[in-house]
Amino acid sequence: QVQLVESGGGLVQAGGSLRLSCAASGSIAGINAMAWYRQTPGKQRDLVAIIGGTGSTNYALPAKGRFTISRDYAKNTVYLQMNSLKPEDTAVYYCYANLKTDCASSYIDYWGQGTQVTVSS
Fold first, then answer.
1. I need a surface site. Which of 70, 99, 101, 105 has the fewest CB within 10 A?
2. Do the Cβ atoms of 85 and 19 come closer than 8 Å?
3. E strands present in the chain
4. Alpha-carbon distances, residue 64 vs 30, 32, 57, 67, 76 (angstroms)
5. Rounded to whole angstroms, what are the CA distances from 95 to 6, 72, 73?
6. Across residues 90-115, what is the average pLDDT?
7. Hey, CA dihedral for 85, 57, 108, 103, is it positive or negative?
8. Could you give the C-alpha distances from 111 to 12, 16, 34, in angstroms and in order?
9. How would you classify the pairing of strands 10-13 and 115-120?
């Protein structure tokens, strides 16, 4: 059973920093992309940052210059360093991975349960 478990969320004042972590566990044969998405109530889930299997990265415009995505390939873990946080960054942040399990024939999408990030003004 594959699990993506996020950690590192919390309450922070505007201008502060947080680092989110997401560890993928289970019978994993390989991971392609890993990413962070965020969602507020009643809104769609939007991409924040993504890191590909070879390490290439892309960021949503609101995250550029403030957030950094990275991964530890050996530990199947992705990180999101968030600096200069703004109130509009408040959301539930979800970890995503496109991965293949040992018993699967193809790569499929997996999601974490989400971690709350609240930025006060």
1. 105
2. no
3. 3-7, 10-13, 18-25, 28-39, 46-51, 57-59, 67-72, 77-82, 91-101, 108-111, 115-120
4. 28, 22, 11, 6, 24
5. 7, 14, 15
6. 97
7. negative
8. 24, 26, 10
9. parallel
- pLDDT tens digit sequence for 49-80: 999 999 999 999 999 999 999 999 999 999 99
What digits encode the pLDDT tens for the residues 23-50?
Answer: 999 999 999 999 999 999 999 999 999 9
Average pLDDT over residues 4-9: 97
Average pLDDT over residues 76-89: 98
Whose structure tokens read 């957030």?
67
- Written as six digits, the tokens of 120 are 């006060």
Confidence label for 83 from pLDDT (cuts 50, 70 and 90): very high
CA 102 to each of CA 27, 44, 57, 98, 110: distance values in angstroms, whole numbers, following the listed order? 6, 31, 26, 14, 14
